[in-house]
């Protein structure tokens, strides 16, 4: 190979390499430009998106904030409202809730004697309602008013069957509680319990809960009670205190004696207590209805022996009563009252518990191998 050929080959090689370098440099330049353009585009999109999102957030921030904060705000409002309402109820009804204790005759009794129970001032003239079992057998009673003022009290009247008693104190400017309508209360509604547990230093103590059940019938010591149940836990000292609705009205009287071993707490609906309270204030004793007859049980053995139906045999018709007036006779067998079958002596007692003096009833009797209906009127019989 000649020198000239070598030079031409070197020149050709140089031109080829230069072309490659030129293409590479050109491509790198183009890629750089493309990269810059893409970067700027992405950057522009990001900036635009951020600005746009900020604009949206700014525009609808009140809606977003409202959505995020609403649940907590509502919970706070409910809690604050309930707390505020309880405070108002406590302030309004608290002065009407009193403690009931034995009268202290010396310092030793004062040191050892706590509250026997609670009571409710229902009349500004000084009338207080409580449970009968709290004051049963007591002669000297002390009432502890709001502010720990102690005053003597007397028993106006008491009724063992309903476990209600009315006391009287001679004090001016008393705050009386308002009675509500217990028939309007339903299971699940919030109620407040106020009493005087464990002594006057805890006067006005309250508990908040709900009504668990209404119109339950229970029997205690052979007595029938229609009661409401609550999830609140009542102590002995709460007995005689008030169950209050959210409007600040008394809708029940706490009765700890009726509480069960399962933890149920009960109170007497105020609508059932009102007529008893009124009767005790007016007469000192509850006027109970009386049919006007004395009876014995005609059980299955007697009925089979004398070939008569079972029921209550009339052994005496009290002179001057409506039973005598309307034709019930000695020797009649009472089969039913107002279509409710009589099969034991307590049946007639339970039926009359739901009545009052002056109520008209239908008595079905068996006489001379025939059945007949006699319409009569119940009369008053005071407790002895």
Automatic annotation (TrEMBL):
Enzyme class: hydrolase
InterPro entries tied to this protein: Chloro_Bact_Ser_Proteases, PDZ, PDZ_sf, Peptidase_S1_PA, Peptidase_S1_PA_chymotrypsin, Peptidase_S1C
Gene Ontology biological process: proteolysis
SUPFAM superfamilies membership: PDZ domain-like (SSF50156), Trypsin-like serine proteases (SSF50494)
Top-level division of the source organism's lineage: Bacteria
SMART domains: PDZ
PDZ domain location: 280-369
Transmembrane segments: 31-51
Enzyme Commission identifier(s): 3.4.21.-
Claim: Hydrolase is one of the keywords in the record: yes
Key words of the record: Hydrolase, Membrane, Protease, Transmembrane, Transmembrane helix
GO MF terms, alphabetically ordered: serine-type endopeptidase activity
Gene3D superfamilies assigned: 2.30.42.10, Trypsin-like serine proteases (2.40.10.10)
Family: Belongs to the peptidase S1C family.
Protein name per Swiss-Prot or TrEMBL: Serine protease
């Amino acid at each position: 190979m000649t020198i000239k050929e070598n030079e031409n080959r070197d020149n050709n090689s140089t031109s080829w390499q230069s072309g490659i370098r030129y293409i590479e440099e050109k491509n790198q330049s183009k890629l750089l430009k493309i990269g810059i353009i893409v970067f700027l585009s992405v950057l522009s999109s990001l900036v635009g998106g951020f600005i746009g999102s900020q604009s949206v957030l700014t525009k609808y921030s009140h809606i977003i904030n409202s959505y995020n904060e609403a649940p907590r705000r509502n919970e706070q409002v409910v809690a604050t409202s309930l707390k505020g309402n309880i405070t108002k109820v406590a302030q309004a009804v608290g002065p009407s809730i009193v403690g009931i204790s034995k009268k202290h005759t010396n310092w030793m009794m004062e040191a050892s004697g706590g509250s026997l129970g609670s009571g409710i001032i229902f009349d500004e003239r000084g009338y207080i309602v409580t449970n009968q079992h709290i004051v049963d057998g007591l002669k000297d009673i002390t009432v502890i008013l709001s502010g720990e003022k102690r005053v003597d009290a007397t028993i106006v009247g008491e009724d063992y069957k309903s476990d209600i008693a009315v006391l009287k104190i001679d004090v001016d400017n008393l705050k009386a509680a308002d009675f509500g309508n217990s028939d309007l209360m339903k299971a699940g509604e919030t109620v407040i319990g106020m009493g005087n547990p464990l002594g006057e230093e805890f006067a006005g103590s309250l508990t908040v809960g709900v009504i668990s059940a209404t119109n339950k019938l229970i029997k205690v010591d052979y007595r029938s009670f229609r009661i409401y149940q609550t999830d609140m836990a009542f102590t002995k000292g709460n007995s005689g205190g008030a169950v209050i609705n959210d409007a600040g009205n008394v809708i029940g009287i706490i009765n700890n004696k009726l509480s069960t071993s399962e933890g149920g707490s009960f109170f007497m609906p105020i609508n059932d207590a009102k007529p008893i309270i009124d009767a005790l204030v007016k007469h000192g004793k509850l006027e109970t209805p009386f049919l006007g007859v004395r009876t014995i049980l005609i059980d299955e053995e007697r009925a089979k022996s004398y070939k008569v139906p079972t029921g209550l045999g009339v052994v005496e018709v009290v002179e001057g009563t409506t039973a005598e007036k309307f034709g019930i006779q000695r020797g009649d067998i009472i089969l039913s009252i107002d279509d409710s079958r009589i099969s034991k002596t307590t049946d007639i007692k339970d039926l009359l518990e739901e009545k009052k003096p002056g109520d008209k009833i239908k008595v079905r009797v068996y006489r001379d191998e025939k059945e007949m209906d006699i319409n009569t009127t119940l009369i008053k019989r005071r407790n002895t």
